[in-house]
Amino acid sequence: MEKNTVSLRGRNILGLEDFSPEEIRLVLETAKEMKNIIHRDIKKVPTLRGKSIVTLFYEPSTRTRTSFELAGKYLGADVVNITSGTSSIVKGESLRDTLYTVEAMGVDAIVMRHKAEGAAAYASRVVSPVILNAGDGAHAHPSQGLLNLFTIQEHKGTLSGLKVAIVGDVLHSRVARSDIYGMRKMGMEVHLAGPKTLLPRYLYEEPGIFVHERIEEAIADADVIEVLRIQLERMKGGLFPTTREYARIFGLNKQRLSLAKDDVLVLHPGPMNKGWEISPFVAYGKQSAIQEEVQNGVAVRMALFTLVLTGGKQE
Questions:
Q1: Please, which residues have CB within 8 angstroms of residue 258's CB and are 6 or more apart in sequence?
Q2: Domain ranges of the chain
Q3: Catalytic residue from among 30, 64, 151, 306
Q4: 275, CA 20 to 30 Å: which among 76, 102, 132, 149?
Q5: Is 139 in the active site?
Q6: 5 in catalytic set
Q7: CATH 1.10.3720.10 correct for 2-140+294-310
Q8: What pTM, to 2 d.p., does this model score?
Q9: Is 64 labeled as catalytic in the residue annotation?
């Protein structure tokens, strides 16, 4: 019944702050159906036959760009990739002109990653194709937030009431922002820990969010731990002494992991700085769902394409 009353058709996917709990549940339910397609010998359905999608990436990406591309192709769409290093962007073409060019080619959806916060929202105002935000600076990464929720729900059977610890570089993490919005909407309790220099001040005032100075306090009895990557490329320097010191004080290792629940689920958006924010023992241990997140990312992005381009109808 819920699928008939909630629709994302024609919707720009800019951030999870724009989603209702019902819309999040719709994406997760649809992703479950999409995951069955990934497990088939022939991973092809005609849902988006005749549709065209462009991925427009101004920043490097492996997991996100490839999973969006595969998601479109598994659904039967034509997918074209544009990266800043191999397009007219290197000749000085503006974002607006690039968007106009892509729109003029008759595409139905644009998947966009850009270093500037608000770039996806700007694109949604400038051109008519549906915009799916694949990361805008440190602002938002909605599909990653959704795939994290999907992974947690698959393992735990529920979302409401779970304690989640998000540890590390929260300040520069668009994933953390999307996670916090999505997790709070689904009734999860969020605990944050990291160097004070990497924790945004506004989070201290948010309901349902608890900020800790020590990682041990955040992960105690946690159902889920998400480790964030140290984003050296976004830092100006001086935010913590050395990566060795960071690993010693804030890294998730075997000893710290034992403070969480026995069935704790460990997530990481990737790529990992192993030995810094997470030890190899934890990254590849039995509690880790890090590689599973990659597969779930394809399923969630298939769900998003299906819902925004067809409304969930098998066309």
A1: none
A2: 2-140+294-310, 142-290
A3: 64
A4: 149
A5: no
A6: no
A7: no
A8: 0.92
A9: yes
